[in-house]
């Protein structure tokens, strides 16, 4: 009997180890996930600094204003005025602009953006899952109670900030966004353009987001190895509300 108990104990112990290893591989167990790299973003070789952040803002000519106030996420960003631009932003400048962003609802950190000559863009970083709902609200979307009930149990399983990798071929022509999404990997899960109608959903979201930017009139956005090329009008100022 004792021998049977030891054998069962060994089997259960082995199953537990397998569960922990598999869970860690896919990003569910924090410490083991770090070991497997499920929380380590892909290094795209883009190094940036605060100088790149300042360079982006100086080129854009858009004043960034921050204030502390308690507002709903959808009211946390306000735009005013507009001016014409014909600019190119480097990979370092784009990455820095997002990483040093003071907006409290940004859902991705440790961001690297790498454009290529064929127009494709790679993006890597970490997803802050606790920011997703607020980010969607700020973008004009809101999760329904049914959505929350459906996805909360799965999000609760992920105790880490999983790594994110996205590949797309985005363009904007006369205020029409086409992200041309190819694939995304979250921790160890890969989603293709055909999964969950992802490409169409992301295009709709991109167009909704652009239409919410007062003062923006984008004639063209393209990418190559030199960076992001923007022609059109962008706001004179952006007021970002941070938490009190």
Description of the structure:
It is globular, with a radius of gyration of 21 Å. The protein has helices at 2-26, 30-36, 50-60, 91-99, 132-138, 145-157, 198-211; strands at 63-68, 77-80, 83-89, 108-115, 121-127, 163-168, 171-173, 176-178, 181-186, 189-192, 217-224, 227-234, 237-242. The chain contains seven helices and 13 strands. A hairpin with a 2-residue loop joins strand 9 and strand 10 (189-192). The strands form three sheets. The protein has a five-stranded antiparallel beta sheet with strand order 3-12-11-7-8. Strands 4-5-6-9-10 form a five-stranded antiparallel beta sheet. 35% of the residues lie in helices and 31% in strands. The chain is an alpha+beta fold.
Q: Say how many strands there are.
A: 13
SSE order: HHHEEEHEEHHEEEEEHEEE
Shape: globular
Poorly predicted runs: 1-33
Q: Which strands sit side by side, in order, in the main sheet?
A: 3-12-11-7-8
Give Rg in angstroms: 21 Å
Give the strand content: 25-35%
Task: Note the main sheet.
Answer: 5 strands, antiparallel
Provide the domain count: 2
Structural class: alpha+beta
First-residue to last-residue Cα separation = 63 Å
* Secondary structure: helix percent: 25-40%
Determine the mean pLDDT. 78
How many helical stretches? 7
List the helices and strands and how they pair.
Blueprint: H1 2-26, H2 30-36, H3 50-60, E1 63-68, E2 77-80, E3 83-89, H4 91-99, E4 108-115, E5 121-127, H5 132-138, H6 145-157, E6 163-168, E7 171-173, E8 176-178, E9 181-186, E10 189-192, H7 198-211, E11 217-224, E12 227-234, E13 237-242
Parallel strand pairs: 1-13
Antiparallel strand pairs: 2-13, 3-12, 4-5, 5-6, 6-9, 7-8, 7-11, 9-10, 11-12
Helix pairs in contact: 1-2, 3-4
């Amino acid at each position: 009997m004792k021998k049977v108990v030891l054998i069962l104990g060994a089997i259960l112990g082995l199953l537990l180890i397998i569960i922990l290893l598999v869970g860690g591989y896919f990003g569910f167990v924090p410490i083991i996930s770090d070991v497997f790299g499920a929380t380590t973003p892909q290094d795209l070789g883009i190094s940036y600094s605060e100088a790149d952040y300042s360079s982006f803002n100086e080129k854009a000519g858009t004043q960034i204003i921050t204030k502390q106030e308690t507002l709903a996420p959808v009211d946390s960003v306000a735009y005013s005025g507009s001016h014409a631009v014909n600019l190119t932003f480097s990979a370092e400048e784009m990455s820095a602009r997002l990483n040093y962003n003071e907006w409290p609802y940004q859902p991705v950190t440790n961001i690297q953006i790498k454009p290529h000559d064929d127009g494709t863009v790679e993006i890597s970083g970490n997803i802050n899952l606790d920011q997703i709902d607020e980010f969607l609200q700020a973008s004009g979307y809101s999760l329904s109670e049914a959505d929350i009930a459906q996805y909360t149990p799965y999000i609760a399983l992920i105790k880490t900030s999983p790594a994110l990798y996205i590949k797309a071929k985005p363009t904007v022509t006369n205020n029409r966004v086409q992200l041309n999404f190819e694939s995304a990997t979250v921790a160890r899960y890969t989603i293709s353009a055909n999964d969950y109608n992802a490409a169409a959903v992301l295009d709709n979201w991109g167009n909704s987001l652009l239409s919410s930017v007062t003062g923006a009139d984008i004639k063209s956005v393209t990418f190559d190895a030199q960076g992001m090329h923007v022609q059109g009008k962008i706001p004179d100022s952006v007021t970002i509300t941070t938490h009190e």
